[in-house]
Amino acid sequence: MPSISRRTLLRSAAAVGAAVSAPTLLTACSTGSGDSDVSNAGKKLAPWPAYRPTTTAPKPDLAPTDAGVQAGYTAYPSDLVKSVSRTPGDGSTIKVMTVSFGTPPKPASANQFWAAVEKALGVKIEYTIVSQADYQKKMATVMAADPDALPDIINLFSGFVLPREAEFVQRRAEDLTPYLSGEAVADYPNLANIPTHAWRDMGRIGGRIYGIPLERPLPGSTLWLNQEMFAGAGMKEGWTADDFAAVAKRATSGRTYALGAAQGSMFGNAVHSAAHNAPQEWAVTKDGTFQPGWADERFKAAIAFQSELRKAGSYHPDATSISQIDLTTLYYNGTVGSMQDGFGAYLPKYRESKGKLTPAAAVPYSVDGTPGGIVAARRSFGYTVLKKAKKERVELLLRILDYLAAPFGSKEWELVHYGVEGTHFTRGKDGSPQPTKLGEVENNTNLPLKYLAEGPQVLFVPGMPEAVRALHAWQLKTVPRAIRNASYGLQSRTKNAQGTTLKALLEDTVTGIVAGRVPLSEWDGAVKKWRSRGGDRMAEEFAKDYDANT
């Protein structure tokens, strides 16, 4: 396989890589002389912010592990701490912009949640909220606009390719290295509480730190089951791939289907390829060689397995055209017994099921006697950058973000996530916040402050301690077998320029094979085409950048 190793690179005088930059598809589509500027190769790398875990947050009921299992809270803390000593703002107006997955909020003048946050922060907030569907188009406009017109705080969402993003950030955003690198972050205790893994997966640009990451748990794409449906069909501990197929077939009857999938998900391929222990997009060997997961025989075996599931009738017949939103509705009403979604979707899964079903994260089946793996997520969901400004203004904006990054168990976290007690939420019997009718409209989903800054994620489901125990136990079983995409935090010039098109070539082929429109024999040819058109160049570029940062 034509790829490049670290030893080869060390012998090469031309070992200049692309940048470790933004999260996954958000790195710059760089061309020309700008490449050497955003690259980390040959640069002095700024130390990551010194991690200082909070000492005031309540002790979790279920302990985290160094491997990545999250802290779990089976009850809401009874004594909330203060994590910010003073009002961070100075009465000025700040302009912010984030992606949104909710509905547009009520205007600030009629929004009590908005007003309460402004009062706590000590600023007026002019908020530009961009729906996920419009995000790429809107960001292209923002990036091309006059620098003076930029918002003060910009959320860069990790779900899309933004051409030449690293160069945009380096040119237009404030270099935060002097404020956050090493011990400097101690001036912002809640930002110092963000674990190093989130900063690493965000990455540097030109060796410098330009953003603040949105930390996320290690589990990524997860198969969410209807526990009752799958248990009733014979699901058992330690199931094999054959057991999974048999259970899915038994759970499918009439207009009820065991397996749901959404458009673009390749029939939930991430979950099945991980269960087959295939690399998740990229693997790296001990000598620094990058190998594509697409070319791995285990990935091909997962496609074949999914094809057999579809032939058996276990998938919903509209699996290639249903939107993720509509699929979620089918999951809640029992039409489908499972769906692939991010692990972080556990909270709405438990809340919205409303007792009609018990959501459960599936333990991967084994293949040929080998326990299955799970998808390891990028530990940074996106990142936040600041418009270039004078030192005093930058420090003000960082204090604002420090407040928003308050840890679970703090008064600041409760305000930002639930609003004002008696107005936006009441207390359940266990003391946990329960949204009021107003709180279902005025909240952190529709006014998505959580995409500006957020503290480390914990496991907590209000009023549902058994759900927290189940999720924590699932993580203990599965996190040690999480399969990480080795390209996280690295930049490839070819991927930035061609990655979306090349990936679509393979994803369309996977979907076609599973759907029965394309024979499995076409897969090797598609991979060969992908490699010749840029896949092998990506391997070389990732290897160079990996070497520069290891």
List low-pLDDT spans.
1-36
Strand content: 5-15%
**Discrete helix count:** 19
Determine Rg (CA atoms, Å): 23 Å
Instruction: Tell how many strands the DSSP assignment holds.
Output: 14
Order of the strands making up the biggest sheet: 2-1-3-11-4
Largest sheet: 5 strands, mixed
Distance between the first and last residues' Cα: 23 Å
Structural class: alpha/beta
Helix content: 25-40%
Q: How would you describe this structure to a colleague?
A:
By secondary structure, the protein is an alpha/beta fold. The protein is 35% helix and 11% strand. The chain is built from 19 helices and 14 strands. It has a five-stranded mixed beta sheet. Strands 8-5-9 form a three-stranded antiparallel beta sheet. It is globular, with a radius of gyration of 23 Å. The N terminus is likely disordered. This is Sugar ABC transporter substrate-binding protein.
Concise synopsis of the structure shown:
Keywords: Signal. By secondary structure, the protein is an alpha/beta fold. 35% of the residues lie in helices and 11% in strands.
Task: Summarize the helices and strands and which ones pair or pack.
Layout: H1 6-10, H2 35-38, E1 93-100, H3 112-121, E2 124-131, H4 135-144, E3 153-157, H5 165-172, H6 177-180, H7 189-192, H8 196-202, E4 212-215, E5 221-226, H9 227-232, H10 241-250, H11 269-275, E6 282-284, E7 290-292, H12 297-311, H13 324-332, E8 338-342, H14 346-353, E9 359-361, E10 374-375, E11 380-386, H15 391-404, H16 411-418, E12 425-427, E13 433-435, H17 465-478, E14 482-483, H18 493-515, H19 523-548
Parallel strand pairs: 1-2, 1-3, 10-14
Antiparallel strand pairs: 3-11, 4-11, 5-8, 5-9, 6-7, 12-13
